[in-house]
Amino acid sequence: MSACGDAAPQASSLTVLHAFDGSDGAWSRGSLTRVGTTLYGRTAIGGDANSGTVFRIAEDGSGFARLYSFSASGDNGSGNQPHHNAMLWLGDRLLGAALYGGNQRNDVPDRVTGDVASGPPTVQAGNGTLFTIRPDGSDYTVLLELDGGTSASALPHSPPALAPDGRTLYGMTSSGGAHGSGTLYTIGVDGSGYRLLHSFAAKDGDQPHGVLAFDSGGRLLGMTRKDGTPPNGGTGGGVIFRFDPTSGAYDVLHTFTQGDRSDGDTNDHGFLRLVDGVAYATTELGGAALQGTLFSIREDGSDFTILHSFGATDGDGAKPFGSLLLLDGWLYGTTTKGGQKGDGTLFRFRIADAAYEVLASFDRKTSGAFPEDDLVASADGRFLYGLTQAGGVNDPDATAYDGTVFRFAVP
Questions:
Q1: Maximum distance among all alpha carbons in the chain?
Q2: Phi, psi (deg, nearest 5) at residue 13
Q3: pLDDT score of 9
Q4: Long-range pairs for 310-313: beta carbons < 8 A, 24 or more residues apart
Q5: Considering its fold, how many domains does the chain have in total?
Q6: Mean pLDDT across the chain
Q7: Model pLDDT for residues 28-76, shown as the tens digit of each residue
Q8: Cα 314 versus chain centre, distance
Q9: Is residue 72 part of a domain?
Q10: Residue 1 lies in a domain
Q11: What is the rounded CA–CA span in Å between residue 182 and residue 196?
Q12: Residue 189: what are its φ and ψ, rounded to 5°?
Protein backbone atom coordinates (compact mmCIF):
# COMPACT_ATOMS: atom_id res chain seq x y z
CA MET A 1 0.00 0.00 0.00
CA SER A 2 1.35 3.42 -0.92
CA ALA A 3 2.14 6.35 1.30
CA CYS A 4 -0.74 8.76 1.57
CA GLY A 5 0.45 12.37 1.33
CA ASP A 6 -3.04 13.87 1.86
CA ALA A 7 -3.52 17.48 0.76
CA ALA A 8 -5.68 19.98 2.64
CA PRO A 9 -9.24 19.72 1.25
CA GLN A 10 -10.22 22.68 -0.93
CA ALA A 11 -13.93 23.09 -0.23
CA SER A 12 -13.91 26.43 -2.08
CA SER A 13 -13.11 24.57 -5.31
CA LEU A 14 -16.53 22.89 -5.20
CA THR A 15 -19.33 24.86 -6.86
CA VAL A 16 -22.97 23.81 -6.85
CA LEU A 17 -24.47 24.23 -10.32
CA HIS A 18 -27.93 22.99 -9.35
CA ALA A 19 -29.68 21.81 -6.19
CA PHE A 20 -32.56 19.41 -6.79
CA ASP A 21 -35.86 20.01 -5.00
CA GLY A 22 -37.82 16.84 -5.77
CA SER A 23 -39.99 18.26 -8.53
CA ASP A 24 -37.02 18.35 -10.92
CA GLY A 25 -35.47 15.16 -9.57
CA ALA A 26 -34.03 13.69 -6.37
CA TRP A 27 -31.59 11.02 -5.18
CA SER A 28 -29.20 11.79 -8.02
CA ARG A 29 -27.06 8.66 -7.95
CA GLY A 30 -25.96 8.33 -11.55
CA SER A 31 -23.16 9.91 -13.57
CA LEU A 32 -23.28 12.80 -16.01
CA THR A 33 -22.81 12.51 -19.76
CA ARG A 34 -21.04 15.44 -21.42
CA VAL A 35 -21.98 16.31 -25.01
CA GLY A 36 -20.09 19.41 -26.07
CA THR A 37 -20.66 21.86 -23.22
CA THR A 38 -23.93 20.31 -22.06
CA LEU A 39 -24.27 17.79 -19.25
CA TYR A 40 -27.05 15.18 -19.22
CA GLY A 41 -28.06 13.05 -16.26
CA ARG A 42 -30.80 11.16 -14.45
CA THR A 43 -32.20 10.99 -10.94
CA ALA A 44 -33.54 7.83 -9.31
CA ILE A 45 -36.62 9.44 -7.77
CA GLY A 46 -38.42 12.80 -7.92
CA GLY A 47 -40.34 14.23 -10.84
CA ASP A 48 -44.06 13.98 -11.50
CA ALA A 49 -44.44 10.41 -10.22
CA ASN A 50 -41.45 10.32 -7.84
CA SER A 51 -39.94 7.70 -10.15
CA GLY A 52 -36.98 9.64 -11.54
CA THR A 53 -36.11 12.21 -14.20
CA VAL A 54 -33.77 12.92 -17.10
CA PHE A 55 -32.25 16.42 -17.08
CA ARG A 56 -29.68 18.64 -18.75
CA ILE A 57 -27.58 21.57 -17.59
CA ALA A 58 -24.82 23.62 -19.21
CA GLU A 59 -21.26 23.35 -17.89
CA ASP A 60 -21.54 26.88 -16.49
CA GLY A 61 -24.69 25.96 -14.55
CA SER A 62 -27.15 27.74 -16.82
CA GLY A 63 -30.10 26.30 -18.68
CA PHE A 64 -31.16 23.55 -16.29
CA ALA A 65 -34.14 21.69 -17.74
CA ARG A 66 -36.06 18.61 -16.72
CA LEU A 67 -36.36 16.71 -19.99
CA TYR A 68 -38.38 13.67 -18.96
CA SER A 69 -40.23 12.42 -15.90
CA PHE A 70 -40.51 8.64 -15.47
CA SER A 71 -43.93 7.19 -14.68
CA ALA A 72 -44.71 4.96 -11.72
CA SER A 73 -45.68 1.29 -11.33
CA GLY A 74 -44.08 -1.90 -12.53
CA ASP A 75 -46.25 -2.34 -15.59
CA ASN A 76 -45.83 1.09 -17.13
CA GLY A 77 -44.07 -0.21 -20.22
CA SER A 78 -41.37 2.45 -20.07
CA GLY A 79 -39.23 1.78 -16.99
CA ASN A 80 -38.37 3.94 -14.01
CA GLN A 81 -35.84 4.65 -11.26
CA PRO A 82 -32.61 4.80 -13.27
CA HIS A 83 -29.63 4.32 -10.98
CA HIS A 84 -25.95 4.23 -11.84
CA ASN A 85 -23.27 5.27 -14.32
CA ALA A 86 -23.66 7.53 -17.34
CA MET A 87 -25.97 7.34 -20.32
CA LEU A 88 -24.32 6.62 -23.66
CA TRP A 89 -24.24 9.24 -26.42
CA LEU A 90 -25.05 7.45 -29.67
CA GLY A 91 -24.77 10.06 -32.37
CA ASP A 92 -28.03 11.93 -31.83
CA ARG A 93 -29.61 10.12 -28.88
CA LEU A 94 -28.87 9.20 -25.28
CA LEU A 95 -29.16 5.56 -24.22
CA GLY A 96 -29.81 4.65 -20.60
CA ALA A 97 -31.08 1.91 -18.31
CA ALA A 98 -34.01 1.97 -15.90
CA LEU A 99 -33.63 -0.39 -12.97
CA TYR A 100 -37.35 -1.04 -12.56
CA GLY A 101 -40.57 -0.70 -14.53
CA GLY A 102 -41.49 -2.18 -17.87
CA ASN A 103 -44.32 -4.60 -18.46
CA GLN A 104 -42.37 -7.78 -17.90
CA ARG A 105 -42.74 -9.33 -14.43
CA ASN A 106 -42.13 -13.09 -14.59
CA ASP A 107 -40.71 -14.55 -11.37
CA VAL A 108 -38.48 -11.69 -10.22
CA PRO A 109 -40.09 -10.37 -7.02
CA ASP A 110 -40.75 -6.75 -6.15
CA ARG A 111 -37.69 -5.24 -4.51
CA VAL A 112 -37.14 -2.88 -1.60
CA THR A 113 -34.05 -0.74 -2.07
CA GLY A 114 -32.23 1.85 -0.02
CA ASP A 115 -30.83 2.01 3.50
CA VAL A 116 -29.68 4.66 5.90
CA ALA A 117 -26.38 4.94 4.05
CA SER A 118 -27.51 4.98 0.45
CA GLY A 119 -30.92 6.54 0.21
CA PRO A 120 -34.61 6.42 0.96
CA PRO A 121 -36.43 3.07 0.79
CA THR A 122 -38.44 2.63 -2.40
CA VAL A 123 -40.62 -0.26 -3.50
CA GLN A 124 -40.96 -1.02 -7.18
CA ALA A 125 -41.81 -3.87 -9.49
CA GLY A 126 -40.82 -4.81 -13.01
CA ASN A 127 -37.50 -5.94 -14.33
CA GLY A 128 -36.25 -2.74 -15.97
CA THR A 129 -35.70 -1.38 -19.46
CA LEU A 130 -33.14 0.04 -21.83
CA PHE A 131 -34.30 3.32 -23.34
CA THR A 132 -33.23 6.07 -25.71
CA ILE A 133 -34.19 9.74 -25.66
CA ARG A 134 -33.34 12.76 -27.81
CA PRO A 135 -31.27 15.55 -26.20
CA ASP A 136 -34.30 17.86 -26.16
CA GLY A 137 -36.28 15.26 -24.16
CA SER A 138 -38.47 14.14 -27.04
CA ASP A 139 -39.09 10.70 -28.51
CA TYR A 140 -38.51 8.61 -25.38
CA THR A 141 -38.28 5.06 -26.77
CA VAL A 142 -38.01 1.71 -25.00
CA LEU A 143 -35.22 -0.23 -26.67
CA LEU A 144 -35.65 -3.39 -24.60
CA GLU A 145 -37.94 -4.59 -21.81
CA LEU A 146 -36.09 -7.05 -19.62
CA ASP A 147 -38.26 -10.02 -18.75
CA GLY A 148 -36.37 -11.65 -15.90
CA GLY A 149 -36.91 -15.25 -14.99
CA THR A 150 -34.35 -18.03 -15.07
CA SER A 151 -33.55 -17.63 -18.74
CA ALA A 152 -33.35 -13.86 -19.20
CA SER A 153 -31.95 -10.67 -17.69
CA ALA A 154 -33.47 -8.46 -14.99
CA LEU A 155 -32.69 -5.31 -12.99
CA PRO A 156 -29.99 -3.38 -14.89
CA HIS A 157 -28.25 -1.01 -12.49
CA SER A 158 -26.22 0.58 -15.30
CA PRO A 159 -26.41 1.09 -19.06
CA PRO A 160 -24.52 -1.30 -21.35
CA ALA A 161 -21.11 -0.57 -22.87
CA LEU A 162 -20.59 0.13 -26.57
CA ALA A 163 -18.25 -2.33 -28.26
CA PRO A 164 -15.37 -1.06 -30.44
CA ASP A 165 -17.37 -1.96 -33.55
CA GLY A 166 -19.84 0.83 -32.69
CA ARG A 167 -22.83 -1.45 -33.39
CA THR A 168 -23.01 -3.82 -30.43
CA LEU A 169 -23.85 -3.26 -26.77
CA TYR A 170 -22.77 -5.49 -23.89
CA GLY A 171 -24.34 -5.18 -20.46
CA MET A 172 -24.88 -6.73 -17.05
CA THR A 173 -27.96 -7.20 -14.91
CA SER A 174 -27.99 -7.86 -11.17
CA SER A 175 -30.76 -10.46 -11.29
CA GLY A 176 -32.26 -13.02 -13.63
CA GLY A 177 -30.49 -15.83 -15.39
CA ALA A 178 -30.38 -19.53 -14.65
CA HIS A 179 -29.42 -19.04 -10.99
CA GLY A 180 -31.09 -15.70 -10.26
CA SER A 181 -27.66 -14.16 -9.69
CA GLY A 182 -27.50 -11.90 -12.73
CA THR A 183 -26.50 -12.04 -16.36
CA LEU A 184 -24.29 -10.81 -19.16
CA TYR A 185 -26.21 -9.92 -22.31
CA THR A 186 -25.70 -8.37 -25.74
CA ILE A 187 -27.98 -6.34 -27.99
CA GLY A 188 -27.60 -4.21 -31.11
CA VAL A 189 -27.69 -0.42 -30.82
CA ASP A 190 -31.02 -0.53 -32.69
CA GLY A 191 -32.53 -2.83 -30.06
CA SER A 192 -32.34 -5.99 -32.15
CA GLY A 193 -30.59 -9.27 -31.43
CA TYR A 194 -30.89 -9.51 -27.65
CA ARG A 195 -28.97 -12.57 -26.44
CA LEU A 196 -28.13 -13.82 -22.96
CA LEU A 197 -24.41 -14.61 -22.85
CA HIS A 198 -23.79 -15.82 -19.31
CA SER A 199 -25.72 -16.60 -16.13
CA PHE A 200 -23.84 -15.85 -12.93
CA ALA A 201 -23.78 -18.35 -10.05
CA ALA A 202 -22.92 -17.42 -6.48
CA LYS A 203 -19.69 -19.43 -6.37
CA ASP A 204 -18.32 -17.50 -9.37
CA GLY A 205 -19.79 -14.10 -8.48
CA ASP A 206 -23.27 -12.75 -7.76
CA GLN A 207 -25.09 -9.49 -8.59
CA PRO A 208 -22.90 -7.84 -11.24
CA HIS A 209 -23.23 -4.06 -11.22
CA GLY A 210 -21.50 -1.34 -13.17
CA VAL A 211 -20.28 -1.18 -16.76
CA LEU A 212 -18.17 -3.66 -18.69
CA ALA A 213 -14.70 -2.78 -20.01
CA PHE A 214 -12.92 -4.25 -23.02
CA ASP A 215 -9.41 -5.65 -22.68
CA SER A 216 -6.76 -5.56 -25.41
CA GLY A 217 -8.11 -8.81 -26.86
CA GLY A 218 -11.71 -7.61 -27.03
CA ARG A 219 -12.83 -9.65 -24.02
CA LEU A 220 -15.20 -8.24 -21.41
CA LEU A 221 -13.94 -7.32 -17.95
CA GLY A 222 -16.27 -6.61 -15.04
CA MET A 223 -17.00 -7.10 -11.36
CA THR A 224 -19.72 -8.49 -9.14
CA ARG A 225 -20.62 -7.07 -5.75
CA LYS A 226 -21.17 -10.37 -3.92
CA ASP A 227 -19.95 -13.92 -3.43
CA GLY A 228 -17.26 -15.83 -5.24
CA THR A 229 -14.96 -18.47 -3.74
CA PRO A 230 -11.79 -17.04 -2.13
CA PRO A 231 -8.83 -19.37 -2.75
CA ASN A 232 -7.71 -19.23 0.88
CA GLY A 233 -11.13 -19.65 2.44
CA GLY A 234 -13.46 -17.09 3.94
CA THR A 235 -16.55 -15.49 2.47
CA GLY A 236 -16.46 -14.00 -1.00
CA GLY A 237 -17.00 -10.26 -1.39
CA GLY A 238 -17.42 -10.26 -5.15
CA VAL A 239 -15.14 -11.07 -8.07
CA ILE A 240 -13.29 -9.55 -11.00
CA PHE A 241 -14.15 -11.58 -14.07
CA ARG A 242 -13.30 -11.92 -17.76
CA PHE A 243 -15.69 -13.14 -20.44
CA ASP A 244 -14.88 -13.97 -24.05
CA PRO A 245 -17.97 -13.20 -26.18
CA THR A 246 -16.57 -15.31 -29.01
CA SER A 247 -15.90 -18.54 -27.13
CA GLY A 248 -18.22 -18.02 -24.16
CA ALA A 249 -15.34 -18.67 -21.73
CA TYR A 250 -15.85 -17.16 -18.28
CA ASP A 251 -12.88 -16.77 -15.92
CA VAL A 252 -12.59 -15.36 -12.41
CA LEU A 253 -9.46 -13.20 -12.26
CA HIS A 254 -9.69 -12.28 -8.58
CA THR A 255 -12.07 -13.01 -5.70
CA PHE A 256 -12.44 -10.41 -2.96
CA THR A 257 -12.67 -11.63 0.64
CA GLN A 258 -15.09 -10.12 3.15
CA GLY A 259 -13.45 -8.59 6.21
CA ASP A 260 -9.90 -9.06 4.88
CA ARG A 261 -7.71 -6.01 5.57
CA SER A 262 -5.23 -7.12 2.90
CA ASP A 263 -7.88 -7.37 0.19
CA GLY A 264 -10.78 -5.38 -1.23
CA ASP A 265 -14.41 -6.19 -0.56
CA THR A 266 -17.61 -5.33 -2.46
CA ASN A 267 -17.44 -3.29 -5.62
CA ASP A 268 -20.86 -1.70 -5.80
CA HIS A 269 -21.22 -0.39 -9.34
CA GLY A 270 -17.85 0.88 -10.46
CA PHE A 271 -16.01 -0.33 -13.52
CA LEU A 272 -12.40 -1.14 -14.35
CA ARG A 273 -10.38 1.72 -15.84
CA LEU A 274 -7.77 0.21 -18.17
CA VAL A 275 -4.44 2.02 -18.60
CA ASP A 276 -1.69 0.29 -20.60
CA GLY A 277 -2.94 -3.20 -19.79
CA VAL A 278 -3.54 -2.49 -16.11
CA ALA A 279 -7.03 -2.09 -14.65
CA TYR A 280 -7.73 0.35 -11.79
CA ALA A 281 -10.87 0.42 -9.64
CA THR A 282 -12.23 0.77 -6.11
CA THR A 283 -14.09 -1.35 -3.59
CA GLU A 284 -16.53 -0.05 -1.00
CA LEU A 285 -15.08 -2.14 1.84
CA GLY A 286 -11.88 -3.99 2.68
CA GLY A 287 -8.44 -2.50 3.08
CA ALA A 288 -6.53 -1.62 6.24
CA ALA A 289 -9.47 0.25 7.79
CA LEU A 290 -12.21 -1.88 6.14
CA GLN A 291 -13.46 1.35 4.56
CA GLY A 292 -12.59 0.58 0.97
CA THR A 293 -9.66 0.30 -1.40
CA LEU A 294 -8.19 1.60 -4.62
CA PHE A 295 -6.53 -1.31 -6.39
CA SER A 296 -4.85 -2.35 -9.61
CA ILE A 297 -4.74 -5.65 -11.46
CA ARG A 298 -3.31 -6.60 -14.83
CA GLU A 299 -5.87 -7.47 -17.46
CA ASP A 300 -4.68 -11.09 -17.37
CA GLY A 301 -5.50 -11.29 -13.64
CA SER A 302 -1.94 -11.07 -12.31
CA ASP A 303 -0.39 -8.57 -9.87
CA PHE A 304 -3.44 -7.62 -7.84
CA THR A 305 -2.27 -4.72 -5.63
CA ILE A 306 -3.93 -2.51 -3.03
CA LEU A 307 -2.77 1.03 -3.90
CA HIS A 308 -4.65 2.90 -1.19
CA SER A 309 -6.77 1.94 1.82
CA PHE A 310 -9.48 4.50 2.48
CA GLY A 311 -10.35 5.75 5.96
CA ALA A 312 -7.00 4.90 7.52
CA THR A 313 -6.10 8.55 8.28
CA ASP A 314 -8.10 11.48 9.68
CA GLY A 315 -9.97 13.39 6.99
CA ASP A 316 -9.60 10.69 4.37
CA GLY A 317 -12.60 9.51 2.37
CA ALA A 318 -14.38 6.23 3.02
CA LYS A 319 -16.57 3.82 1.09
CA PRO A 320 -16.02 4.67 -2.58
CA PHE A 321 -18.83 3.35 -4.79
CA GLY A 322 -18.01 4.58 -8.28
CA SER A 323 -15.27 4.43 -10.89
CA LEU A 324 -12.09 6.35 -11.63
CA LEU A 325 -11.52 9.08 -14.22
CA LEU A 326 -8.10 9.26 -15.91
CA LEU A 327 -6.88 12.82 -16.49
CA ASP A 328 -3.26 13.87 -17.09
CA GLY A 329 -1.83 10.82 -15.35
CA TRP A 330 -4.11 11.13 -12.31
CA LEU A 331 -7.07 8.92 -11.39
CA TYR A 332 -9.91 11.02 -9.93
CA GLY A 333 -12.80 9.66 -7.89
CA THR A 334 -15.18 10.26 -5.01
CA THR A 335 -16.09 8.55 -1.74
CA THR A 336 -19.57 8.45 -0.22
CA LYS A 337 -18.35 8.94 3.35
CA GLY A 338 -15.44 10.41 5.25
CA GLY A 339 -13.77 13.76 4.80
CA GLN A 340 -13.98 16.77 7.11
CA LYS A 341 -17.78 16.56 7.46
CA GLY A 342 -18.35 12.83 6.99
CA ASP A 343 -20.24 13.60 3.77
CA GLY A 344 -17.69 12.28 1.29
CA THR A 345 -14.60 13.42 -0.57
CA LEU A 346 -13.14 14.04 -4.00
CA PHE A 347 -9.66 12.53 -4.35
CA ARG A 348 -6.97 11.76 -6.87
CA PHE A 349 -4.20 9.17 -7.23
CA ARG A 350 -1.19 9.56 -9.52
CA ILE A 351 -0.23 6.35 -11.31
CA ALA A 352 3.43 7.28 -11.85
CA ASP A 353 4.45 7.68 -8.19
CA ALA A 354 1.38 6.54 -6.16
CA ALA A 355 0.76 10.05 -4.80
CA TYR A 356 -2.69 10.32 -3.18
CA GLU A 357 -4.53 13.55 -2.33
CA VAL A 358 -7.88 14.46 -0.84
CA LEU A 359 -8.85 17.49 -2.92
CA ALA A 360 -12.22 18.39 -1.41
CA SER A 361 -14.61 17.41 1.37
CA PHE A 362 -18.34 17.60 0.75
CA ASP A 363 -20.67 19.42 3.13
CA ARG A 364 -24.36 18.50 3.05
CA LYS A 365 -25.51 22.04 3.77
CA THR A 366 -23.63 23.60 0.87
CA SER A 367 -22.10 21.31 -1.76
CA GLY A 368 -24.19 18.20 -1.13
CA ALA A 369 -23.46 14.82 0.41
CA PHE A 370 -22.64 11.20 -0.43
CA PRO A 371 -21.36 11.34 -4.04
CA GLU A 372 -21.37 7.74 -5.21
CA ASP A 373 -20.91 7.71 -8.95
CA ASP A 374 -18.34 8.82 -11.50
CA LEU A 375 -16.81 12.16 -12.45
CA VAL A 376 -16.74 13.62 -15.97
CA ALA A 377 -14.22 16.20 -17.19
CA SER A 378 -14.68 19.30 -19.32
CA ALA A 379 -13.16 19.15 -22.80
CA ASP A 380 -10.13 21.18 -21.67
CA GLY A 381 -9.69 19.20 -18.44
CA ARG A 382 -10.00 22.28 -16.22
CA PHE A 383 -13.18 21.18 -14.45
CA LEU A 384 -14.76 17.98 -13.14
CA TYR A 385 -18.51 17.49 -12.82
CA GLY A 386 -20.55 15.09 -10.73
CA LEU A 387 -23.63 14.44 -8.63
CA THR A 388 -24.31 14.03 -4.93
CA GLN A 389 -27.11 11.82 -3.66
CA ALA A 390 -28.35 14.21 -0.99
CA GLY A 391 -27.85 17.64 0.55
CA GLY A 392 -27.82 21.11 -0.96
CA VAL A 393 -29.83 24.19 -0.05
CA ASN A 394 -33.14 22.33 -0.42
CA ASP A 395 -31.98 19.40 1.71
CA PRO A 396 -29.51 20.81 4.26
CA ASP A 397 -29.86 17.83 6.61
CA ALA A 398 -29.40 15.30 3.77
CA THR A 399 -32.58 13.50 4.81
CA ALA A 400 -34.78 14.17 1.77
CA TYR A 401 -32.11 12.88 -0.63
CA ASP A 402 -32.50 15.73 -3.09
CA GLY A 403 -28.84 16.09 -4.11
CA THR A 404 -26.81 18.46 -6.28
CA VAL A 405 -24.92 18.87 -9.54
CA PHE A 406 -21.43 20.10 -8.67
CA ARG A 407 -18.33 21.40 -10.44
CA PHE A 408 -14.75 21.11 -9.19
CA ALA A 409 -11.84 23.22 -10.43
CA VAL A 410 -8.86 20.94 -11.07
CA PRO A 411 -5.75 22.30 -9.27
A1: 54
A2: -80, -10
A3: 52
A4: 310/335, 310/338, 311/287, 311/337, 311/338, 312/4, 312/287, 312/288, 313/4, 313/6
A5: 1
A6: 91
A7: 999 999 999 999 999 999 999 999 999 999 999 999 999 999 998 766 7
A8: 26
A9: yes
A10: no
A11: 10
A12: -65, -20
Question: How far, in Å, CA of 239 to CA of 257, rounded?
Answer: 9
For residue 254, what are the domain limits? 11-409
Instruction: Give the CATH number for residue 70.
Output: 2.120.10.60
